[in-house]
Amino acid sequence: MIKSQLLQGNKTNFPVHGLQNSATASRLTNPRSPAGVHVGRSPKARRRAISESPMVRNYKLLPIAASSLFNRLPPTAFQPALRPLSRCSSRSPKMARNEGIKPENEEQLKALFEQKRVIRSSVRKALKAMDPSLRSQEDNAIQNIVLEAPWFKSSQRLCAYVSCSALREVDTSRILSETLQHPPKDGYSKKIYVPRVEDKNSHMRMFNISRMDDLIANSMNILEPAPVDGDGNEREDGNFMLTKDPIDLFLLPGLAFDKSGRRLGRGGGYYDTFLKNYQELAKVRNWKQPLLVALSYSVQIMDEGLIPLTLNDVLVDVLVSPSGVIPISSAGLDKMKV
Q1: β-strand partners of 207
Q2: 58-115: per-residue pLDDT in tens?
Q3: What is the C-alpha to C-alpha distance for residues 8 and 292, in angstroms, rounded to an integer?
Q4: Rounded CA gap, 30 and 18, in Å?
Q5: 75, 181, 188, 310: most buried, per Cβ within 10 A?
Q6: If we measure between CA atoms, which residue out of 273, 284, 282 comes closest to residue 313?
Q7: What does the alpha-carbon distance between residue 131 and residue 34 come to, in Å, rounded to a whole number?
Q8: How far from chain centre, in Å, is Cα 98?
């Protein structure tokens, strides 16, 4: 009954963690979800052939039609349905473990990347069709949840993406600006690192910023930190190989997510590569692993099992939607108890 109501876009009265009994929750708990943004963090509408993706360039593949397995899925398979969530769920969320498939042959690899391509296309269409007023409401709801979350307030060193409106990413401008303007507590303020893409080979660096003016538009009109500050001094590079202080929290973008922790990016592999390297470094140095938090509009949440998972994909610990916080891994569950 509940599932039928949700698929039809009808309102339900289930509480959601973070927005219980609020007017915002009433508007946003079950928005209608059409189902989809383009490959690469560029506002220009362009498509790359499968062979051009950094993750599979070495396989020398050509664009292909959907595999026979994928064609058997009904057209409605990619219509995400946002179910109401509660912190006190009757069943525990799944742990964020990567049980991705290791392709045994080229055809299997082609099928996986074709499946991802179709989902990306579907989510792009949904985001493009999203009403601007609803987008603004969801941006505000998500940022309010993050700013008030205990796991955010307690973090001291965090990496966060700088949202790009042309890419229809969840807005992070208020999260960044309010955090940077917040006076130091006990003589210590949060340290924020934001990404800068270095090349087309999934190489990304994190630089520390102290104000929003530290960001400049790159050639694709995406805000990034300049390597030097306004005084000509080299900006602190978040080269974590050289630091003694670990990162507490990552705020992550993406195109599609599910409640088992799967995250589908834009195909460049920048975040997965960076996160894999950092997690390995944390293991070597015996650091506590950072909390990985993804921010998602309601239309970006997919049914579990639709997003294909490969061994290179990194799962998130927490998903924040307009409806509230969805803890996924054991680390995410622990943070909800704070």
Answers
A1: 194, 237
A2: 333 323 333 333 333 343 333 333 333 333 333 334 445 555 556 567 888 889 989 9
A3: 32
A4: 15
A5: 310
A6: 273
A7: 11
A8: 16
